[in-house]
Each structure stands twice: as structure tokens, then as C-alpha cells.
């Protein structure tokens, strides 16, 4: 009966079903990221996951449905990672730096071939396709999360800062694959530092403006982003 077990038939806990699904998803994640979603066929996914065709289609109606699940698994991993940073006892700027450091680690890791979301969107350009929609949903969440963090530092132009951060991320992840990953990581971190420095100054301005009494002469109006490292 191949992969069919009592647990798969519903007479047990369902653990074997979960194991088969997770094995398929794990294999798909490795192959889709390394070689592309369109390149990898169902037969290969089945063979390398060591399941049957029946098991595959029991869990996923099509390869595209598996691709959506793959994007969802990457999304969840990033949500969990950022959630852990946000739950830690560190200041907001430390969370943003931690996200940057995590991106640098990914860019410099063996087998890195760019952003999984941008790669998937390039393979599925139709905005109505489920894979493309899953990518867009992740990016909307990521932008909202980053913007919310910048808003904790200063409400003014936090949306601008969030978009700037995401563009830094996109550029670094592409440059890290197509060029020198070390330089791409260093440039990303310098960009984040410049962005934080300028946005923190906005926060100081906001607090000085809202403080009772005369406005502080230390308040400094800023309007641009410096992407050079802070002076020693």
C-alpha cells in the first residue's frame, strides 16, 4: 500500500501524514530555491521526498499549491525570526540592526541564490496567480512590520524609512547573489546605520518639539539619508 498507513486513513494520530507533508515541503523548499519552481517536476519531488504520487496529491492538489506552501513556509520562518527579535529585551534600533545582521548572514551563506520571494515573483509574474499573491502578502507584512518599528523611533516619515529599508534589503539580496556577497552585506549594514541615524534625529526633534517650554536648541531638522558609516 506504499505510503498509506492507518494514521493516514484517519485511525491514528495523523503523525505519519504530517511527516510525509513536511518531507515534501522540505524537499520542495530545497529544490525550488536552488533550481527554480518551474524547473522541478512532481516526479522528482516525489522521488527525492521518498513518497508516492498518491501521497503527494493527498497533500497538494498540484505543484503550484506546493509552491504556495513553500512560500508560506519561508514567510513563517521570517515572521518567527523577527518575532523573536521583537520579544527580546533590546531597543527598537537593535531589532532593526538584528534584522540587517540576519540578512547579511543569509547573503553570505553557502548556496545563496537571492531572495526566495523575488525569485518566485519573477517565475510567476501574473499578479492574480496564487504564488505571486503569496509573495505580495509577505512583502506587505514585512513593510508594515519595518515601518512600525521605525514609527516607534519617530512617527515622522516612518513610512518613508520603512520603504527605504525594504529597498536596501532588496538591493542587497540581489547584489549579494550577482556580485560580491561580502560587499553587499557591508553596504546593507552601512545603509541601515545611516537610515537609523537620520531617523533617530527625527525622533529627537519630535520629542523636543513636544516638550513643555521653549524648543530645545539641540533639535536638528533632517531631510536626507546618509549611507556612509558613522565617523569614528
- SS-derived structural category: mainly alpha
Uncertain stretches = 1-14, 215-232
> What overall form do the CA principal axes indicate?
elongated
Helix percent band: 55-70%
- Our measurement of the CA-to-CA distance between the termini, rounded to an integer number of angstroms, reads 68 Å
Structural Rg: 22 Å
Mean pLDDT across all amino acids: 86
The run of helices and strands is: HHHHHHHHH
Percent of residues in beta strands: under 5%
Contiguous helical run count: 9
Find the count of extended strands (DSSP E, 2+ residues). Answer: 0
Main sheet properties: none
Short structural description:
The protein is an all-alpha fold and 232 residues long. Helices cover 69% and strands 0% of the residues.
Q: Would you write up a description of this structure?
A:
The structure is a single chain. With 232 residues, the protein is an all-alpha fold. The protein has nine helices and no strands. Residues 1-14 and 215-232 have low confidence and may be disordered.
Secondary structure blueprint with pairings:
Blueprint: H1 15-35, H2 42-49, H3 53-59, H4 63-87, H5 92-107, H6 116-123, H7 130-153, H8 158-178, H9 181-210
Short key terms for the protein model shown above:
single chain, 232 residues, mainly alpha, 0% strand, disordered C terminus
Amino acid at each position: 500500500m506504499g505510503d498509506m498507513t492507518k494514521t493516514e486513513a484517519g485511525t491514528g494520530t495523523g503523525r505519519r501524514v504530517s511527516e510525509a507533508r513536511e518531507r515534501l515541503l522540505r524537499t520542495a523548499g530545497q529544490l525550488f530555491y536552488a533550481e527554480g519552481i518551474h524547473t522541478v517536476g512532481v516526479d522528482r519531488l516525489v522521488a527525492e521526498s521518498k513518497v508516492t504520487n498518491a501521497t503527494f496529491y493527498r497533500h497538494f492538489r498540484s505543484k503550484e499549491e506546493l509552491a504556495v506552501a513553500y512560500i508560506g513556509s519561508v514567510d513563517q520562518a521570517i515572521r518567527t525570526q523577527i518575532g523573536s527579535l521583537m520579544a527580546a529585551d533590546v531597543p527598537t534600533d537593535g531589532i532593526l540592526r538584528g534584522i540587517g545582521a540576519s540578512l547579511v548572514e543569509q547573503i553570505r551563506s553557502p548556496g545563496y541564490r537571492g531572495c526566495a520571494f523575488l525569485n518566485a515573483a519573477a517565475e510567476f509574474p501574473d499578479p492574480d496567480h496564487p504564488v505571486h499573491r503569496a509573495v505580495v502578502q509577505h512583502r506587505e507584512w514585512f513593510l508594515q512590520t519595518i515601518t512600525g518599528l521605525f514609527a516607534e523611533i519617530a512617527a515622522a516619515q516612518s513610512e518613508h524609512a520603512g520603504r527605504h529599508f525594504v529597498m536596501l534589503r532588496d538591493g542587497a539580496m540581489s547584489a549579494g547573489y550577482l556580485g560580491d556577497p561580502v560587499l553587499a552585506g557591508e553596504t546593507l549594514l552601512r545603509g541601515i546605520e545611516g537610515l537609523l541615524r537620520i531617523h533617530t534625529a527625527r525622533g529627537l526633534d519630535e520629542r523636543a518639539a513636544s516638550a513643555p517650554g521653549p524648543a530645545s536648541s539641540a533639535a536638528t531638522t533632517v531631510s536626507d539619508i546618509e549611507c556612509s558609516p558613522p565617523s569614528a
